[in-house]
From TrEMBL:
<protein>
    <submittedName>
        <fullName>Winged helix DNA-binding domain-containing protein</fullName>
    </submittedName>
</protein>
<dbReference type="Pfam" id="PF06224">
    <property type="entry name" value="AlkZ-like"/>
</dbReference>
<dbReference type="GO" id="GO:0003677">
    <property type="term" value="F:DNA binding"/>
</dbReference>
<feature type="region of interest" description="Disordered">
    <location>
        <begin position="190"/>
        <end position="213"/>
    </location>
</feature>
<keyword id="KW-0238">DNA-binding</keyword>
<dbReference type="InterPro" id="IPR009351">
    <property type="entry name" value="AlkZ-like"/>
</dbReference>
Amino acid sequence: MHRIDDEQRRIRLGRRHLLAPSVRASSAPAVADAVVALHSTDAATLHLSVCARLSEPGIALMERALYDEVSLVRLLSMRNTLFTVSSGFAPFVDAANARAVAAKERRTFLKHLEADGKGLDARWLADAEQETVAVLAERGRASGSELSAAVPALRTKITVFPGTRQETVQGVASRVIRLLAAEGRIRRDRPRGSWTSSQFRWTASGPWPSSPTATAQAEVARRWLHAYGPGTEADLKWWTGWGLRETRTALAAVGAEEVLLDGGAAGWIAPGDLGPEPPVEPWAALLPSLDPSAMGWADRGFQLQADHRAALFDRAGNIGPTVWWNGRIVGGWAQRADGEIVWRLLSDVGQDGSALIESEASRLTAWVGDTRITPRFRTPMERELTA
C-alpha cells in the first residue's frame, strides 16, 4: 500500500490550506473552497480564518463577499454547527447535511410546542413562519427584536421540559428564526455590531437547487479528501457528522484510494492524489479558535503533540487560538485588552520560526486595528495570556 507520511501531510496542509505566503488567496470564496467550509459559530473566527489566508486581508473584502455579493453563505450543517461556504458549494452542503439538520430542528421544536400544552402545532408554526418571511420581504432586513415587534406570534413563550429539573420558560422567536435559516428561507445579513458580533440582522432568501443526498455527500467527501486527505474513515465521519454507512458510501462513490499513514492506520485520498505535494517555503500562522486547519480531523496527531492539548483545548474539545510552524501547532496566542497580540510557544521553532511568527503577529495587528477579540470558547492558554 502506498504510504503518505506525516511530513507530507503537513506539506499538503501548508499548500492546500493556503497558509504559506506564496499560496495565499486573493478572494474570500477561494479561501472557503480551499478548506471546504469555515467554522462560523464564533463570528470573529470566520474573519480571522479567511484573512490569515489572504494576500491582502481586510474586513471590507469579507463584508462584500458575505453581504453584497453573497458569494459566501452561512449554513447550519456539519455536526449541527454553523459553517460558512462558497455560494457555489452551498447547494451540496445543503443536500448533504443541512436538510437533515433542519428536519431534526423542526421535529424537536414541534415536540416542545406540543409538550407546552397551549395547542400550538405545526399549523401555528407555519403561520408564524409565513408572517416572519413576509415582514422580511417587505422590509428587506430586520433584527430578531424587530421581527418580534412586528410578528405577534414571535412574542409567544413556552415551557420546555415541563415537570423536569430542566424546566424553563423560553420565547419562541430565536427558535423560529433559527429554523427558517436552517431551511434556507432566510439568511444572516450584516450584524448589529462590528464584524465580531453574532447579533445578525436577517433577510429573506430562497431554497438551494435540489440535489440527491447521496450525490451531494459524494461531492462533500471529494472536496474534503482533496483539502484534508489523507484522512481516516473516522476523520471524515467526525467532520461531517454522518453515520458510518453514509461515510463509507460517500468514499466509495468518489473512488477514494486507500493509503498507509504513519503509525500504521489506513487513510484515504482523492482518486489520483498519490503524488507528493511540492514543498512550500517555511511558514508561520496565527489561526483563530476552531480554525479548519485544526478542526479538519478527529485525530490530529500529525500536527499536534499530545502533551500540548490540555493548554490549547477547552473541556468540550474546542481548540483555541493557535500558533503554527510548518504544519505543526507549536503554541497559542491571544489579544490583550490594550490590543497587543501575545503568544507562547510550546515547542522550539528556532530563530527563523520566531521571526516569522513575529511577522505574522504584526500582520494580524495591522488589519485587526482597534477591534478587540475574545474567543467564544476560551482555553487555558488564552486565559493565561490575557490575564
